[in-house]
Amino acid sequence: MSGTIVEFAVPFAVFLGDASDEIYTKTGFGLIQWRRSSCAGQVRLPGCQVDTGVADLTVAQAKSAGVRSLIVGSAAVGGAIPPHWIATLCEAASRGIDIVAGLHTRLADLPNLSQAAAAGGARLIDVRVPPVGLPVGTGRKRTGLRLLTVGTDCACGKKYTALALEREMRARGMSCDFRASGQTGIMIAGRGVPMDAVVADFVTGAAEVLSPDNEPHHWDLIEGQGSIFHPGFLQVTIGLLVGSQPDAFVVCHDPLRQEPLGCSGFAIPAIAEVIERTIAIGRLTNPAIRCVGIAVNTAKMSGSARAQLRDQYESQHALPCVDPLIDGVGAIVDRLNRGKS
Amino acid sequence: MSGTIVEFAVPFAVFLGDASDEIYTKTGFGLIQWRRSSCAGQVRLPGCQVDTGVADLTVAQAKSAGVRSLIVGSAAVGGAIPPHWIATLCEAASRGIDIVAGLHTRLADLPNLSQAAAAGGARLIDVRVPPVGLPVGTGRKRTGLRLLTVGTDCACGKKYTALALEREMRARGMSCDFRASGQTGIMIAGRGVPMDAVVADFVTGAAEVLSPDNEPHHWDLIEGQGSIFHPGFLQVTIGLLVGSQPDAFVVCHDPLRQEPLGCSGFAIPAIAEVIERTIAIGRLTNPAIRCVGIAVNTAKMSGSARAQLRDQYESQHALPCVDPLIDGVGAIVDRLNRGKS
Fold this sequence. Notes:
The structure is a homodimer of 341-residue chains. Chain A has 341 residues and is of the alpha/beta class. Helix content of chain A is 33%, strand content 17%. Chain A has a six-stranded parallel sheet with strand order 8-10-7-11-12-13, with helices on both faces. The first copy, chain A, is globular and about 55 Å long. The model of chain A is unreliable at 1-5 (pLDDT under 50).
């Protein structure tokens, strides 16, 4: 695979800016959850409403603590870096701390940052630059097996569910690989294709490159993007779906989400609608596509509410329903291994 | 609109390379059909199987004839320029003829071409570079009316149908504008957004920019891209559909096409399937979306076969069916003006 390989020096600190909500800081939370041992702390600006639970550091304290990389773990809609965040990034770069980001804005295009990095001897590392030479999608059927996580919205557990599936399946001795399609996933996996940064014509082709031909019983566990009903991002979702040609998919859902991220006036689709539409479109490149489970984010619900919700979804859809971070994903892997049903 | 404005000096010549089939030279044919009076001729390489019907010129003859721009009117799948075409482009540039192209490959990235252009005092003009600062799509309902041309495949008449609709509606005194979403359309219209070159995350937003708020009775006639069932390009098609939020659409179809362009082993979808899927997905941003006609390319059919085909499609779908270049599109505009039916 000609995917982007990302490497950065540790320990790192996570930069959260003045993010107002956790849904804008999924990168930061992901890094701390999956790479906690390499994380020295978080750098936050006044007014930040998000706390990842690690130590607060100023840039000077981070330098003293031996931090080698400051990873931008927050973004506004569209992947931009607000202008008032840049001074802090410049301060870190001028002290020789590498800056790592996976946003639409390239670090070198931010005012003064290149000069600060040159002065401090720091590197600017963009993990969201797609590989060169991506092909146009052909729809050719590939060998091996694939599972794609999809969702009722953006930022509702698609990456975590795929990572949890990889962990569970490897524990059972199954051959599988997590395939990252976004910046945080690439930071965790060390490789992948930043799907939303690919030029539109090549999205299906990029998805084909992301999960190449493999052994007959090998599973690629592909991190999904966006939502098939999101008015801003569905083109990425659908290109990834058709290029991934998944044999199986899991629907990820946040039961507390009120409207699609960044799109007021629209509704979160019903899980059944997402299943139906995903199968309708996915059949184009894999007629055998099927749903094998539902993954819910119940972190903010009580134990009894969670149990009730799971029971409700399981009976409504005749599918296993789990919170991957609380229940694990064993029930979904069981269903996957039962074959078609 | 912050769209790309393209301007080039005339007279121009069209460069066709050694294209093997007309489906790869739609840019060249479009330019000659809509800008014939500014075209001095065509430059072809040995083995070229395509003839646009204008005078053949060598680069030297083009220069002597006063040609000021050589427009690349052909491409391979994916928008690449084959290496063996480059020497001819270099020769033209070194003689001071501007090179104009709308391909994925940027002209400045082709070997030796920048040097040849510098030596000859020629410009390299890429019409496929998207505007900067495109937003993420929001799905917000805009004022004014919109019609999108869609298709059962790539390259089956979507641009021509939209241009023919503009001509017919203006002749009737209706307020309307052709909105170009691809390189040839941009060359013809002088403005637009090259949708397939936009970064994936911004495709819906680019479509929103392409047809902004307008007067209540004004129609934007939006050039569609790809096909909703094309395994390589459907992400562009669907992003353009949802961002365009069309009130009406026309399905364009080439009855002689055997399989989707560049995708062997796949079938051309039925017109009814395209109508159903376009409505299902388009409803997300415009619940009133409806199909108002079918545009067929019957250039290679006999008169009787054409009449039979039109009758068949009209009765099957209860919609007007026309070949825009033979019959005009009056029947479709009549249907549009009848309102919902």
